[in-house]
Amino acid sequence: LNGPVCAAWCVSLIGSLPQVFIFSRVEVAPGVYDCWAQFIKPWGLRAYVTWTTLVIFVVPVLIVIVCQVRICCAVHTSFHVKTQQSAEEPVSKPMTSR
């Protein structure tokens, strides 16, 4: 099994756990059912919105930022090392045409 894929699925499962406890099937009319959320008053809705915002937006954005910074640092370091190496090498003779 692929470890990162399994980890992503586990994180997704944990992030979606509140849905299991909040949403349920409610009869809105005789014989008509709909999915409704039932929150604990007065803080339930606020906690749900906060959790959803963190899990769906804030945490992924932070992960992307960290990854992008690491990529930029690696590119910068690689570029700097290659620039230093090319500066230290002697200038080669130009190739003559035939």
UniProtKB/TrEMBL annotation:
Supply the InterPro entries for this chain.
GPCR_Rhodpsn (IPR000276)
**In its keyword annotation, does this UniProt entry include Isomerase?**
no
Which SUPFAM superfamilies has this protein been placed in?
A: Family A G protein-coupled receptor-like (SSF81321)
Annotated keywords: Cell membrane, Membrane, Receptor, Transmembrane, Transmembrane helix
What topology does it adopt in the membrane?
Answer: Multi-pass membrane protein
Record-annotated membrane-spanning stretches? 48-66
Q: Please name the GO terms of the biological process aspect recorded for this protein, alphabetically.
A: cellular response to hormone stimulus; positive regulation of vasoconstriction; regulation of systemic arterial blood pressure by vasopressin
Q: Which GO terms describe its molecular function?
A: peptide binding; vasopressin receptor activity
GO terms under cellular component: plasma membrane
Q: Where in the cell is it found?
A: Cell membrane
Q: Can you say what this protein is called?
A: Arginine vasopressin receptor 2
Species annotation: Iconisemion striatum
The gene that this protein is the product of is OLA.7339
